[in-house]
Amino acid sequence: MFHAAMQAAIEGARTLAQMDELSRQLWQGHGAGALGDHEAQILAERLHGRRSAIREGIQPIGIPVGRASVFPPRRSVRSPDRAASRERRRLLACSGPLPPQIAARFTEGQRAVLRIIGDEVAAKGVCGLCIDAIAARAGVCRRLAQGAIRLAEGDGLLTIQERRHEGRKNSPNLVRIISREWQAWVRRGARLQPPRLTLAEPAVQPEGIGCKTKHPTDRVVTLGTTRPAEPVKRLPKRQSFAHW
Description:
Radius of gyration: 38 Å
Strand content: 5-15%
Shape: elongated
CATH superfamily of the domain at 82-190: Winged helix-like DNA-binding domain superfamily/Winged helix DNA-binding domain
Order of helices and strands: HHHHHHHHEEHEE
Strand order of the largest sheet: 1-2
CATH topology of the domain at 82-190: Arc Repressor Mutant, subunit A
Number of strands: 4
Distance between the termini: 143 Å
Number of helices: 9
C-alpha cells in the first residue's frame, strides 16, 4: 500500500521541493519497515530520474538559453604593441614606486601596477580605475594586476572597497593606501615632481633640485670678491744626465 502511494506521488510531483519531501518520506518509511530494501531502491531510482527531468525543464527568466549571465561575455584583451608594453612596465618598475624595503617583496610587473595605483592616490586620494585600465597603463595582463593588488592587500599596504550593485554592472573597486611608509613615499614623490608647464608659462627650474648651473666663463668667488683665476705655476724642466 505504501509502495503504491509513493510511486503515484513521485509520478505526480512537479517541483524540486516536492521531490525533496518525497525523498524524506521514502527513507522514513524504509526505516519504519513499511518498505523493503528492494522496493526502496526502486523508488529511489525513480525519484532520482524524476528530479533530473524537472531540473532540465526549468528555464531561467530573463536570460537567453545557453548564457549564464545577463551581461555580455568578457573579451580577451591583448596589447597591440607588446614591446611598448614591456618597456613601459620596466620603466614604471624602475621609477621607485615603493620604498626599497617594500618594493623587494614584489616582482617587476607587480611594482608597475602599484606605481599606477600610487600615482592615482597622489592625484585624487583614492584609486578608482577599473582593473583593465590599471593593467593597460602598467603594461601587464589583467590577471597579474589583480594578483598584485590582492598581494598588497594581504601585506597590509592597501584596502579594497568593493562596489557591487544587484541587477546591474558593478562599479570599479576603490583602492586606498594605508601603509604609512608608502604614503610618505608618495607624498615625497609628489613634492619633488616638477610642475607641468603650459605654452604661456616660462620654463623655470624648480629650486632645491639638482645642481647649480656653471658656465666656462665663471670666476672664482672668495669671501664675496671676484677675481680672475690664478695661472697654474709650471715646475722647471728636469735636466737630462745622459752625457754623464
